[in-house]
């Protein structure tokens, strides 16, 4: 069953690439067909994933004849099946949404590279997850980098979009190089390219170096500080629902790699565990901090991906702590918390990016103030965005609330450790994650309340610049296929929370190659109640929360109506407050930028907030009274002075790490260019100096 479905899935994606490259994109039917083929292939891989997760016997598929070298093979075990189920269950919905986006006027990026890049991404993800040896893994990994580059280069309407593919490809090559060197070390020690055989590598310097290289390689794809610079550039540069594919599907291959090599390499050094915990906490905090002050919605959601990567890495650090100290329950609670967070992030981020594609197409921009009222004009997209935003904010009763509760509970187990260094690291990471969850609610309540659920104060054409895809053409809400995809994703954000006990049972099967299945099932205190593996610590019932929370809200509303004798629901009309949103139009209304201003000032040291004021003379102010002619406000006719204020924030990683490094490399390149004088005498002198240096080094080594 597994092999035929894998072949059928890859064949569907190959057929989609052929349609895209061969037939072009002029016809709406042809534009949508590759994505429908992608949905069919994703459904096949979803079936493979479910079967592999529930099966105890791994399936191996030989693919050496396809490459002509080595002994390449695909191996589908429960862990691979778990990630196939997650990623391609989402991919079915994203593909349907993509087909609707391409069919309608929303799909204005009518280029062959978009569908080809998307289908290449899906195929590469499937092969990475199922790769059994280093050659197949690295081949698919580099193919995924190519797919990312294709998607991020589809739109080049601004300087930022033109930079995106270069930076995305650069970080992708850094990731691939790190994995290549790590794999070569392990293969050289074991004399085998099979990933499973590397578990024979014992403790030592080579083992620790391999751990570091593997972590760097997978963390770069996930978007962990300081390798996150491509995320806020790459995701917004991709067209439409391609962002959902990159953030909600493809980024999870980094998570899969971390999970897989935990089982392969085993116990990491203690100092590396501390680095993972602190790097995860800093990544989460910086990600949500910069998400809260962005003025473009695509960048808000992109920085949220950095935040989620940090939370996942922190929970993974708890699992590494358990491995280091030899505590199986701690390893189980960390790995389960991280897996729950992966599911929540994948579903919620795909939902938000897919709904944003239609809202951005309708408004012609992704500017927060220009998108005001998008949820009212596009009810399907608005409802889906609301579900995804609440999940990313970690609010009940969504899947994000359950996963973040579990992560915090896992971090609270630090009192069970004996070593002070690990206890302090867990406590510090826990404090950063707790602060992050509060800022996440701030960031997404701002987006949801003031943007999607707000009221438009000006037409899109007046409030927003032209879109990056070339215009501000109106587009209808998602079509039939798009609505199916959005509803499926939105129900995932809400329904998975209600079905959390079944989710834990499914994860127990998928994580069986790493931790005991009975240990994961220890998170079920009863069929409807969860606990953080350790009995008697705390409990949560997400299923009952779905019943209790609505009943409590209805009860509070009924009590308010009764106690107010009906005045609570009466409409009262009073003069609007100057800085309010409802009832106030124009510059006097409360904006998303203004909502984030306190955060810019309170954390100005972290954000390096810079405020620029400019004085600009304007024409005399003219006032008009009802039924009267217009009169000048200034009797002398003197020009008024308008004060413009611009606030900028600076990303510390880019400013203090990458820009100095770039200036250094540019200086070295300039010196090298000057050395290339074209003179034969100079080149002979260079060779003589190199020879003398080589002789001196050789003599010193003898």
Task: Give the arrangement of secondary structure elements.
Blueprint lengths: L1 H22 L4 H27 L4 E4 L1 H4 L5 E4 L1 H26 L8 H19 L3 H19 L6 H32 L14 H18 L8 H7 L4 H9 L1 H14 L4 H22 L5 H29 L2 H36 L10 H4 L1 H14 L6 H13 L8 H33 L7 H4 L16 H19 L1 H11 L6 H5 L2 E3 L2 E2 L11 H22 L28 H11 L1 H4 L2 E9 L3 E2 L7 E2 L7 E9 L3 H24 L4 H22 L1
Antiparallel strand pairs: 1-2, 3-4, 5-8, 6-7
Helix pairs in contact: 1-2, 1-5, 2-4, 2-5, 4-5, 4-10, 4-11, 4-14, 4-20, 4-21, 5-6, 5-10, 6-7, 7-8, 7-9, 8-11, 9-13, 10-14, 12-13, 12-18, 13-14, 13-17, 13-18, 14-16, 14-17, 14-20, 16-18, 16-20, 17-20
Q: What's a quick, concise take on this entry?
A:
With 702 residues, the chain is mainly alpha-helical.
What can you see in these coordinates?
With 702 residues, this protein is mainly α. 67% of the residues lie in helices and 5% in strands. Among the domains are: 1-190, no CATH class; 654-701. The protein has a two-stranded antiparallel sheet. A hairpin with a 2-residue loop joins strand 3 (524-526) and strand 4 (529-530). The chain has helices at 2-23, 28-54, 64-67, 78-103, 112-130, 134-152, 159-190, 205-222, 231-237, 242-250, 252-265, 270-291, 297-325, 328-363, 374-377, 379-392, 399-411, 420-452, 460-463, 480-498, 500-510, 517-521, 542-563, 592-602, 604-607, 652-675, 680-701; strands at 59-62, 73-76, 524-526, 529-530, 610-618, 622-623, 631-632, 640-648. The longest helix has 36 residues, at 328-363. Helix 2 packs antiparallel against helix 4 (78-103).
């Amino acid at each position: 069953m597994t092999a035929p479905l894998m072949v059928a899935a890859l064949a569907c994606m190959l057929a989609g690439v052929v349609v895209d490259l061969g037939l072009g994109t002029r016809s709406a039917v042809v534009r949508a067909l590759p994505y429908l083929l992608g949905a069919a292939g994703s459904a096949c891989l979803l079936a493979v994933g479910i079967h592999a997760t529930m099966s105890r016997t791994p399936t191996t598929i030989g693919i050496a004849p396809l490459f002509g070298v080595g002994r390449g093979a695909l191996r589908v075990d429960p862990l691979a099946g778990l990630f196939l189920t997650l990623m391609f269950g989402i991919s079915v919905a994203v593909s349907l949404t993509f087909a609707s986006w391409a069919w309608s006027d929303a799909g204005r990026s009518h280029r062959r590279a978009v569908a080809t890049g998307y289908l290449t991404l899906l195929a590469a993800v499937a092969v990475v997850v199922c790769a059994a040896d280093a050659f197949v893994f690295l081949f698919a990994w580099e193919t995924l980098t190519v797919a990312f580059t294709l998607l991020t280069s589809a739109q080049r309407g601004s300087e930022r979009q033109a930079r995106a593919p270069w930076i995305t490809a650069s970080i992708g090559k850094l990731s691939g190089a790190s994995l290549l060197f790590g794999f070569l070390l392990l293969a050289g020690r074991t004399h085998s390219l099979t990933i499973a055989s590397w578990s024979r590598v014992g403790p030592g310097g080579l083992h620790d170096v391999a751990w570091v290289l593997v972590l760097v390689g997978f963390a770069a794809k996930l978007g962990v500080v300081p390798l996150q610079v491509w995320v806020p550039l790459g995701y917004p540069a991709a067209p439409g629902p391609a962002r959902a594919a990159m953030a909600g599907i493809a980024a999870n291959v980094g998570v899969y790699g971390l999970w897989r090599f935990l089982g392969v390499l085993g116990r990491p050094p203690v100092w590396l565990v501390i680095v993972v915990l602190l790097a995860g906490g800093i990544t989460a905090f910086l990600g949500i901090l910069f998400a809260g002050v962005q003025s473009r919605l695509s960048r808000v959601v992109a920085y949220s991906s950095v935040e989620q990567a940090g939370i996942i890495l922190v929970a993974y650090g708890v699992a590494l702590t358990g491995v280091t100290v030899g505590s199986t329950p701690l390893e189980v609670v960390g790995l389960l918390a991280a897996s729950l967070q992966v599911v929540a992030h994948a579903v919620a981020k795909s939902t938000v990016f897919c709904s944003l594609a239609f809202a951005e197409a309708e408004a012609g921009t992704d500017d927060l103030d220009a998108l005001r009222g998008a949820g009212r004009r596009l009810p399907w997209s608005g409802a889906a965005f609301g579900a995804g935003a609440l999940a990313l904010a970690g609010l009940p009763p969504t899947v994000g609330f359950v996963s973040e509760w579990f992560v915090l509970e896992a971090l609270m187990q630090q009192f069970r450790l004996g070593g002070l260094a690990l206890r302090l690291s867990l406590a510090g990471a826990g404090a950063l994650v707790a602060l992050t969850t509060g800022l996440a609610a701030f960031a997404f309540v701002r987006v949801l309340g003031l943007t999607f659920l707000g009221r438009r104060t000006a037409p899109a054409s007046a409030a927003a610049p032209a879109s990056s895809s070339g215009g501000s053409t109106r587009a209808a809400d998602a079509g039939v296929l798009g609505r199916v995809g959005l509803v499926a994703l939105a129900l995932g954000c809400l329904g998975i929370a209600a079905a959390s006990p079944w989710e834990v049972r499914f994860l127990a099967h998928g994580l069986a190659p790493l931790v005991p299945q009975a240990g994961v099932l220890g998170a079920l205190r009863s069929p409807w109640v969860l606990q953080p593996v350790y009995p008697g610590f705390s409990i949560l019932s997400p299923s009952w929360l779905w019943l209790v929370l609505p009943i409590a809200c209805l009860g509070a509303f009924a009590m308010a109506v009764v106690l107010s004798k009906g005045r609570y629901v009466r409409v009262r009309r009073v003069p609007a407050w100057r800085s309010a949103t409802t009832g106030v139009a124009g510059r006097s209304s409360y904006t998303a930028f203004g909502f984030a201003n306190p955060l810019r000032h309170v954390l100005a040291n972290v954000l390096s907030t810079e405020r620029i004021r400019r004085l600009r003379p304007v024409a005399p102010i003219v006032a008009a009274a009802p039924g009267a002619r217009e009169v000048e406000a200034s009797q002398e006719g003197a020009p008024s002075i308008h004060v413009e204020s611009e606030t900028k924030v600076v990303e510390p990683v880019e400013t203090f790490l990458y820009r100095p490094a770039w200036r250094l490399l540019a200086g070295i390149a300039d010196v090298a260019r000057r050395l290339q004088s074209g003179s034969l005498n100079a080149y002979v002198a260079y060779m003589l100096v190199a020879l003398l240096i080589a002789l001196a080094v050789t003599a010193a080594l003898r």
